[in-house]
Write a structure and sequence with these properties.
- This is DNA mismatch repair protein MutL.
- GO terms for molecular function: ATP binding; ATP hydrolysis activity; ATP-dependent DNA damage sensor activity; endonuclease activity; mismatched DNA binding.
- By secondary structure, the chain is an alpha+beta fold.
- The protein has 11 helices and 17 strands.
- The protein has an 8-stranded mixed β-sheet with strand order 5-4-3-6-2-1-7-8, covered by helices on one side.
- Strand 1 and strand 2 form a beta hairpin.
- Bound molecules: adenosine-5'-diphosphate (ADP) and magnesium ion.
- The site of magnesium ion has 5 residues, from helix 2.
């Protein structure tokens, strides 16, 4: 008799959860990405106690068909890719089909979703990977996810959660990046009853920057916009008066996905060259677009790194675009008015 056997699905999900769900902010990131992939134009987020007690994400996207609702919570279940070829040109934020089963394995989840305007949808409740309730329910088109008591059944993980304030900091970070990534989506974020962010969703990035960093910062930013046969760059980057003490000030989006990349940050900083005080970073929101085959996002579920092909060309393009944007505006210290 051999001793090797396949893990049962529940155990496999719990193990995957260890990678995908590090803290409440990772749940929030996955849920917002799903809302964005669903084509939502409004995303409303409510959190309690740093997201450990409750996270609720309601969107007006395409919704989940009633017959698909259970399947959505199964491992490797996704509507976003189906062939190996798709994997090399990913156009959605999600694609692994791991988030919902992983989250449901370590929390108490209620999902109400409707894929049409009938006012009727379906409700599913899962606790620790076990289905507790499934029934028809009133629902507008879209998806409403409530995640309670994250890590209630994994005490070892729960023990490592930091203070409410620290977890809230991570939640806010995710909210800000996602809002900056999609000025065309109206986001709201409230924590323990206080509204912390509200963006208009009218497509104006400067308005989102004003909501996140304040109007003074928004006024001190110049527009970036340049094209190259392989890439385009757009966004806002600060005149050297609006600097921060760490690189979190830089929000980098590649095909709408928030990522981190030295291959982008280094040429950005080089473009500022001596304009930046020592150990200061410019406030920047940089959105790069390129053919999905030129960037590999399939690195790790929770990690933010990406790999670029033609990296040297990309670096040169970024440095030049930022330099030009700054060069044409560097002598107008107050920048343009907030539109
Ligand atoms: P992935 O996003 O990688 O496909 P998830 O586990 O996050 O995997 O979600 C599984 C599937 O559930 C998605 O592919 C999608 O079809 C559906 N889904 C999840 N969240 C939403 C949502 N907010 N709106 C519409 N569909 C959703
Ligand atoms: Mg997803």
């Amino acid at each position: 008799m051999g001793v090797i056997r396949l893990l049962d699905e529940h155990l496999a999900n719990q193990i995957a959860a260890g990678e995908v769900v590090e803290r409440p902010a990772s749940v929030l990131k996955e849920m917002i990405e799903n809302a964005v992939d669903a084509g939502a134009t409004t995303v409303d987020v409510t959190a309690e106690d740093g997201g450990l007690a409750l996270l609720r994400i309601a969107d007006n996207g395409c919704g989940i068909e009633p017959d698909d609702l259970r399947t959505a919570f199964q491992r490797h279940a996704t509507s976003k890719i189906s062939t190996a070829k798709d994997l090399f040109q990913i156009a959605t934020l999600g694609f692994r089909g791991e988030a919902l089963p992983s989250i449901a394995a370590v929390a108490k989840v209620k999902c109400v979703s409707s894929a049409d305007a009938s006012g009727l949808g379906r409700l599913l409740e899962i606790e620790g990977g076990e289905i507790k309730r499934e029934e028809d329910a009133a629902s507008a088109r879209g998806t409403d996810m409530t995640i309670r008591e994250l890590f209630y059944n994994t005490p070892a993980r729960l023990k490592y959660m930091k203070t409410v304030q620290t977890e809230l900091g991570h939640l806010s970070d995710v909210m800000y990046r996602q809002a900056l990534a999609r000025p065309d989506i109206a986001f709201t974020f409230s924590h323990n009853g206080t509204t912390l962010l509200r963006t208009p969703g009218n497509g104006d990035l400067r308005r989102v920057v004003a909501a996140v960093y304040g109007t003074a910062a928004a006024k001190a930013m110049v527009e970036l916009s340049a094209d190259h046969p392989d890439y385009s760059i757009a966004g806002l980057t600060a005149l050297p008066v609006e600097t921060r003490s760490n690189r979190n000030a830089i929000t980098l989006l590649v095909n709408g996905r928030y990522v981190r990349s030295q291959a982008v940050v280094q040429p950005l900083l080089q473009a500022y060259h001596t304009l930046l005080p020592l150990h200061r970073f410019p406030l920047s929101v940089i959105s790069l677009r390129m053919h999905p085959s030129l960037v590999d996002v399939n690195v790790h579920p929770a990690k933010l790194e990406v790999r670029f092909s033609k990296e040297n060309e990309l670096r040169a393009f970024i440095e030049q675009s930022v330099r030009e944007a700054l060069g044409s505006q560097a002598y107008i210290p107050s920048g343009a008015a907030v539109r």
